[in-house]
Here is the input.
Amino acid sequence: MRTKVISSTIQLEQIISACRSKGLTIGFVPTMGALHEGHLSLIKSSKEQTDFTVCSIFVNPKQFNKAEDLDHYPRSLKMDVSKLEAAKCDLVFAPTENEIYQDEVPFEFDFAGLDQYMEGKFRSGHFNGVVHVVKRLFEIVRPEKAFFGLKDYQQFVIIQQLVRFFNLPIDVVGCPTVREKNGLALSSRNSQLDTKDIPAALELSKALNLIKSRFQKSNLDALKKQAINQLEQHTKLEYLIIANSRTLSPIEKWSDAQHARAFVAAEVGGVRLIDNVEIF
Ligand code: PAF
Here is the structure.
């Protein structure tokens, strides 16, 4: 069966209601398009865990803090739809900006400090834009489960807070980062990388793996300095932070947290890349 592609909120709500009346559970994968294997792994998880999978494709202007970043963001609707068709996604929702935001009711949201560091600090207003679009999409799709990649770990934790804050009956499921064999985390932005910049791009996952493999033997500060030093030789480093996985606050020694992750953002050949890994 062909995957249906719609752009109207009313039409989407009608399809969802028809699913509900048949007792089907809804799985939702929100995306900004330029789909890769990482997105398709979210579709696969949704199909395994729910009865009807909706994927949205919407490049959300509110979450870009630089106009040129929004302009350069890859757009490939036709190719995306054929990938979703091959993945047997049930429905694609590709709305216009007006369709998404026309009925939006303004709201206040408490990030509970989760936006203070990393992307929240370096991309001012970014998470505010993410929270606005995801809340709106959740209201329209009303899924039982929504699937997010752990590559955007800070986003995943903030969406969990969104659901808690507004008491939404949605299970937010985090799915593992999909990587190339060489370790590069899949990202829609990778298509903007020049081949000559790939070795430098690999420094991100190398630095994270260095920390993961040595944390039991080295003190945090020394290990972090070594990783930063390596990254600075090959990339324009924005941050390397080791943080508590729950609060997302940086830690200074390993004993400061029960669960920790390392996060990195760096520019390579003019392309901004992020990655993170669980340390313990
Ligand atoms: O992760 C993304 O692609 C976006 O931030 C999301 C969740 C689709 C919201 O626009």
